[in-house]
Amino acid sequence: MHIKMHIGIDDTDSLSGGCTTYVGALVIEELLKNGKVKFLDYPNLIRLNPNIPWKTRGNGAIALRIEVTYDEVTKIEEEVIKKVLENAYIDENTEPTIAFLKGEVPIFLKEFAYESVRRVIDIDQAVKIAERSNLKLFTLNDKKRGIIGAISAIGLTLDEGDYTFELLAYRRKENYGKKREIDEKSVYEMDKLTSPYTFNNIDYEKNRILITPRGPDPVLFGIRGESPEILLTAFQKIKVYEPIERWVIYKTNQGTDMHYMDIKRIKELKCYDAVKLLGKISSPPKIIKGGHLILTITDECNDTIECAIYEPTKRLKKMAMQLQCGDIIKVYGVVKEHNNTLTINVEKLYVKKLEKIVRKRNPKCPVCGATMKSEGKNKGFECEKCKYKAGINLRKEEEVVLRNIYEGIYLPPPRSHRHLTKPLIRYTNERVNNSQQKMIKNWYWSETLHANIN
Fold first, then answer.
1. CA distance linking residue 78 with residue 177, whole number of Å
2. Rounded CA gap, 269 and 398, in Å?
3. Which listed residue, of 64, 79, 159, 332, carries a Cα 20 to 30 Å from 206's Cα?
4. Strand partners, 212
């Protein structure tokens, strides 16, 4: 008898080191070696609320969805736990957690998972959801914070709505902390060949490649794209001058804007929420200490909130300086508290409607065409050039001021994007048809398995 099995893994890394996706890759290899395991979907890389203050940089958890015989379940659970504990980066901040679910994912667990991408979740709430779902949990310590990520990864099945893929290549252990030996020219060539079906490979504003992380973690590089096939094409174009230990293709919610909740009223905002909020500019943009920009917007209930656009966003800040009172915008960002007052830290802007600015000017002289001069209130105009005089029947002309801004979406440069931020290039590539696709054969490779990507 065969049974579906979902495995969620979270919090195997810390700010000091480690990598949950790498631990996932090692677990995947262990399952593939088993010989009796069938993967039902690509491994899932789920990015949770990026605004949680105690998160590691990416706030990512993983889920593996497999089919096994019923009598293999206990053995697989033991193998997974052993592999995670052998490879997790454990310190006072890590709380490795593994969750196991047999059968279908219940609706209420899916709803909980979506909530965990957008808001702060209470641990007690997560424990209750796990119990209600008949999830089996393994936690290394009593804090249990990793439960939220592990069960959310299982719940967010990515069978509804948008999703993308990422191919992650890993280094040999002896190269951790060393400069990543990648031919940058080949990354530019790969981007030119595969764009717009891969994204955020390069920040052209700074001429900086973005596929390589900067820390001492196991990741050599990661390529994000719309399909496994395009990722393999891109991967084969990258020239690398150090050995690749393994690579894996993850299915993910990265680049989808999944974390933003549509909020109608400012009164509904809570600290650390990821939101999108429509409002009207109610005071001119102002620059504060540090070069940051503050916008004040008003909602439909006439409540106001300040929105902060930080100096490193560069082009987003430059654009926002052109906004005027009366403009209608939608801000995308995270709610934070400053001096006991809620503020939205802006990550992107949608300019919905620009206020028309009309300027009055003195009329042109009907004789010589020069601009006339007013002789005072209700006294008409005189042309200084030809001395022609006009009575009060000649009025000031109205001129619509051309503004250096357009309606549409505005984002910071790619180097400032968060994992979940949908880049402009994806606004025509969102996934709307989520029919189950057959997995490609070559979605995982490692030195030890001696696989072949061709």
1. 32
2. 41
3. 332
4. none
CA dist 286 and 292 (Å) reads: 8
Specify the higher pLDDT residue, 441 or 35: 441
Beta-carbon contacts of residue 273 (< 8 Å; ≥ 6 apart): 51, 118, 119, 120, 261, 263, 334, 335
d(CA 343, CA 305): 6
Relative orientation angle of helices 20-34 and 73-87, to the nearest 10 degrees = 140
Tokens 């089996």 appear where? 136
Do the beta carbons of residue 308 and residue 343 sit within 8 Å?
Answer: yes
Bridge partners (DSSP) of residue 85 are: none
Q: Look up residue 409 and give its two tokens.
A: 């979406």
Block residue for tokens 């965990």: 116
Q: Has this prediction a pTM greater than 0.90?
A: no
Separate counts of helices (H) and strands (E) for the chain: 8, 25
**Residue corresponding to tokens 């994912």:** 105
Distance CA 96, CA 150 (A): 9
> What region does 255 belong to: left with phi over 0, alpha with psi -120 to 50, or beta?
left
Three-state SS at 237: helix
pLDDT band at 453 (very low <50, low <70, confident <90, very high): very low
| Predicted local confidence at residue 16, as pLDDT | 58
The Cα–Cα gap between 63 and 150 comes to 8
The alpha-carbon radius of gyration of the chain (Å, integer) is 28
> DSSP class of residue 376?
S
Closest CA to 272 of 177, 342, 209: 342
- DSSP H stretches of helix in 238-345: 315-320
- Burial, 398: exposed, middle or buried (Cβ in 10 Å; 0-12, 13-18, 19+)? exposed
| pLDDT value of position 331 | 97
Residues 76, 81, 87: CA angle, nearest 5 degrees: 125
Cβ atoms of 165 and 251 within 8 Å: the answer is yes
List all residues 6 or more positions away from 230 whose beta carbon is below 8 Å from its beta carbon. 194, 197, 198
Three-point CA angle 97, 98, 99, nearest 5°: 125
115 contact partners, CB below 8 Å, separation of at least 6: 121
Residues 133, 249: Cα–Cα separation, whole Å: 28
With tokens 């299982």, the residue in question is 154
Using an 8 Å Cβ cutoff, are 156 and 162 in contact?
Answer: no
